[in-house]
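Here is a typical sample entry:
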Amino acid sequence: MIEIRKAGTFMLGDHTVKRLGYGAMQLAGPGVFGPPKDRDGAIAVLREAMANGVNHIDTSDFYGPHITNQLIREALHPYPSDLVIVTKISARRGKDGSWVPAFSREELTQAVHDNLRNLGLDVLDVVNLRSMFGIHGPAEGSI
């Protein structure tokens, strides 16, 4: 196992985070859609990451959708004071699991509120605008 403390730290805004964090995307079901096959296992993974020193998590409410953030909340809330949760917005999931760009003012606002609600937070530490013009790589588009 990698010793997270040996990876060092960096500043993310005014937060000191360890260089090795946890990317929560794969906590959702196959294709990052729907619930995981093993909900208890997903919760255990999050708790183990924290126990091993992770202090930042990369997530988004469009993983699942909503599933990943709900798992994070269930596993870790109330959150440790040094945990930094980084999320992203600008997409939504179609009923068929497709990735749909969501760049309108209303969609971006709703995405922030969805992240807040499903994570059980009043404030988000970091929100990234994810370019969804090309799901698997660079593509042309305007924001």
Remarks:
- The mean pLDDT is 91.
- The beta strands are 9-12, 15-18, 22-23, 56-58, 84-89, 91-93, 99-101, 126-129.
